[in-house]
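so i finally got all the pieces together for this one. its two components total, 782 residues if u count the protein bits. some of the lines might not be protein, just check the labels. i wanna see the whole assembly predicted at once instead of chain by chain like last time, that was a mess tbh
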Amino acid sequence: MVTKIKIDPITRIEGHMAIEAVIDNGVVKEARSAGTLFRGFEIILRDRDPRDANRLTQRICGVCPTAHATASALCLDDAFGLTDKIPDNGKVLRALIFGSNFLQSHILHFYHLAALDYVDAVGALGDLAPFVPRYEGDYRVTGEANAELVNHYVRALDIRRKCQEMLSIFGGKMPHNVGIVPGGVTEKPTEDKITNFLWRLNEIRDFIDNTYVPDVIAVAKAYGDYFEIGKGCGRLLSYGGFDLPTGRLFKSGVISPDLQLEPVASENITEDVKHSWYADSSSGKNPAQGETKPELNKKEAYSFIKSPRYKGEVCELGPLARMVNNYVQGDAKVKELVDSLLGQVGAGVDALFSVLGRHAARALEAKLVADTMVDWLQTLKPDEPTIVPAEIPDQAEGAGLTEAPRGSVGHWITIKDKKIDRYQVITPTAWNASPKDDKDQPGAVEQALIGTKVKDKDNPFELVRIVRAFDPCLACSVHLLDAKKSELGIFRVV
Amino acid sequence: MATKKYPVIWLQGAGCTGCSVSILNAVSPRIQNLLLDELVPGQRLNLMFHATIMGGQGEPVIEVLKDAEKNRKGDYILVVEGAIPTAEGGAYGSIGEKAGKHVTIQQSVEELGQNALLTLAIGTCAAYGGIPAAKPNPTLCKGVKMVFNEKGIGTLVVNLPGCPLHPEWFTGTISVILFSGVQALALDDLARPKLFYGQLVHENCPRRADFDKGKFAEKLGDAGCLYKLGCKGHYTNADCPLRQWNNGVNWCVKAGSPCLACVEPEFPDGTSPIYEKISFEDLIWSQK
């Protein structure tokens, strides 16, 4: 029997998302992911002062604004000819600000966005909104162990808040920090602030080591079958990120399904639009030449997200892509972290390509980032500059590529007459939640859904667990829009 | 005596979730107190719908909205975060379905707004349109009050702007409502509580002495008043310098960054270029 499951809204993600799955004999045969809100940042950015992109693009997403602050600062550094001139202090402070947001984002994701699919909040707290209504049935942790996990849900609220407080020591405020600007960082790394930062960081590290990582392992042991659910496309992409005087934290690379490594070249990135509401003439372009030509009367379109591809291939981005990249490239610390966790749950490297593999990679990455931040902090030099002045050139182009909590993010700018002529953003969720491309290859989330067995179509836990493991950020991925002519009827295709 | 519960329906429109994340940063009361506890003795909130944190998804959670609209008239607080896209009948933003048709954010806000006890427009997008409504306003985004006015919806709208808003502007407003009642909220002519938006940033700025002495920062990272670097604190109504951000750790000007005027209805068009000095006369006052 063929049935269609439609979940709108997908909650506990950032933004507005709906998914649809065609189930044949209990197995997902076809899947569609779509965003249900559109704004239009690139269009709003046109003709503005290029420096303003650094403030405004953060507002693409309130969960990961520092990702856009960092990518736009790198992009403007490049356009302004400052890339080689950023003081070491500026680079390190940017990394500490951005790193703090990685920690808050990963902790928020596991406990407050994903955990309610595994942990029985109602069992511990009672029949209480906003924890009900919910899917009923498959909650496998019970009694004291469950109560402890619910306790950690509450405690993690404090810890993620403290990540934001730590961030604002150098970033000024969160969400939407003000410290990261083209040229460097406005705050000064005085000794008192460094120590203040360190001890906040130590509390967060303690939580990651003794609560977050063990909780992910506890969930993994109870839901072991989820090491085999949601495999996905198997091709992983990381632009690389956190380039510091002391080295690069996240290695760059494309990893093929048979774990072969290939270097990343941004000219191999293209965006298809066959199944998106954009003119087919704009399909297959590199973002540096990218166009946003909406065309809403397209029969085959079902999303406002374009389909970014690398050499025409579907890629998955995010913590899993980064951890496997570093693992394959021989990063000793990552290898140790990954092997140790896999040993504890009795799984092999293949098991990383799964719902639980994504959660595990995210938790280990939080540990890696937090531990490395301690080293970065030691390299700050209180009396040295943090910033160089930025001058807007008459004409210029620039690109800023980095790694956000959810995966690789890129910003591209063209400046004409000292103003923004064109601004393009490709976010990680655009890759992960993309629709089918010109070759009809489904996007990464869609591929992870296809082939999944759904035990109870009224409570399709499998589908939401798969989608949430990617940590989708819809505000990020559907910021593209030009609203010339639209009809409600077309919008309702999903 | 039974606890009085205020049901809260939290809708997200054209926004970034940053205001919700900011409220997660609340310190006293903390977010867990807002969710789980009596906020003041005998009274508590009951957050029935919030897409970022609620347990359920899909149709069952849309039923929560339908139930509130039908069975809790005049009972619930509607919180709106994000602007309302109104182009093409609201087609650019939807939440769930009703009878097989997408329900637009505009429709939800109007229907739920009509029957709410009051509406809190959280953040500059919900209050005045904010960045999604910036030129050329591709989706014709509007603030809640403008939408209500156009539809003749008389429900009180309290604006709590900011990009994002400070968590205490929210928890403080809730406190006034629980302690003293909605009528006790003293609002300015932009519907903001005077308690939080009653003084200029400039009045309380720690760099005010530099301004008075004529000691101005010439480039970012310099000491001195940030006026020449585009600071808009001289016409921005917010208590950031007194309250500070993130548990009092820091705030924009202290961190060496000019005030963006993010609580004002002109943000961002009338307050940019962000890093250019703007004279008082240059400001767009038409919306005030």
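Confidence is low (pLDDT under 50) at residues 479-494 of chain A.
The domain at 2-491 of chain A is CATH 1.10.645.10 (Cytochrome-c3 Hydrogenase; chain B).
anyway lmk what u think
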